[in-house]
Amino acid sequence: MKKWVLAIVPLLLLGAPCGKCELNKAEMRCDFYVARQGDRSRVESCREYADYLHKTQVYGKAAWYYLLSLQPEKALESAQKAVKMGEGYAYEYMGDAYLILGKREKAEEAYRKFSQSVGNTHFFTSKSFPILERLYTQFPRREAEKILEK
Predict the structure, then answer these.
(1) 140 Rama sector, left if φ>0, alpha if ψ -120 to 50, beta otherwise
(2) C-alpha distances in angstroms, 117 versus 24, 46, 90, 146?
(3) CA 79 to CA 40: how far, in whole Å?
(4) pTM (predicted TM-score)
(5) Are 141 and 129 in contact (CB under 8 A)?
(6) Which among 53, 51, 71, 59 has a CA at the least distance from the CA of 132?
(7) Contact, 72 vs 46, CB < 8 A?
(8) What does the DSSP 8-state code read for residue 31?
(9) What is the pLDDT of residues 61-104, one digit of tens each?
């Protein structure tokens, strides 16, 4: 009897539907096509993944994926929730979203808080700013860097 159960259980597990597989694929597509290659036609996968993260209250990461999905308003909303939960790094995404939306004063305030929260801002922005610059023609990378240098 035990041998029979041991043979059947792995087969059942292998044949079980994968609930998170599509989400994992969406994340990988977003990271590769959108973040790495700058392919704006594939932002739907970023939005799909961001929606899932937001729904599961992983707000800081959701804010980044909303930025990748070209939805700075939603990124701002998620970043604000992340900050309330103590995720200081999300101030960067808040500042990025404000700059994209043309709200420089609010961006300055968010970047100041980001700098206070994480210390070495360059570690984070050296990866994110080039990506945002490719995706958003209106993202003022040099201006953001100047604000963070203050």
Answers:
(1) beta
(2) 30, 26, 9, 18
(3) 22
(4) 0.85
(5) yes
(6) 71
(7) no
(8) I
(9) 999 999 999 999 999 999 999 999 999 999 999 999 999 999 99
Among the listed residues 113, 115, 57, 111, the one whose alpha carbon sits nearest the alpha carbon of residue 82: 57
Q: Where are the alpha helices (DSSP H) in the chain?
A: 2-15, 21-29, 43-55, 59-68, 72-84, 90-100, 104-118, 121-135, 141-149
Residue type, 91: Y
pLDDT, tens only, 17-73: 566 788 889 999 999 999 999 999 999 999 999 999 999 999 999 999 999 999 999
